[in-house]
Specification:
3 helices
Length: 87
């Protein structure tokens, strides 16, 4: 593993986590905002509850594969430390 490969893999893992956990929040925020605007409900706990359920559902469905991917990345980085140090 080279520094370029390490950087590319890190950015892939970062993108994976951001996509898994932020995409549902963005979608629920958009839908909840449209629903609030349509019904003129100005309750902050409504959006918070929807976002909490969305992130819980995303973590339940995609959490284990995401963390297994992160563990695999961490192992490959740890195993490649001597190669990275000695060039």
């Amino acid at each position: 593993m080279t520094w370029d490969t390490l950087a590319r893999d890190f950015l892939f893992e970062l993108g994976l986590f951001l996509t898994i956990f932020l995409a549902p929040l963005l979608f629920v925020g958009l839908v909840g905002g449209l629903l609030q605007a349509a019904t003129q409900i100005r309750e902050t706990t409504f959006i918070f509850g929807l976002k909490f359920m969305a992130i819980s559902l995303a973590a339940a469905i995609f959490g284990q594969p995401a963390f297994l991917s992160l563990i695999g990345f961490s192992r490959s980085v740890i195993h490649s430390i001597p190669v990275l140090i000695h060039g």
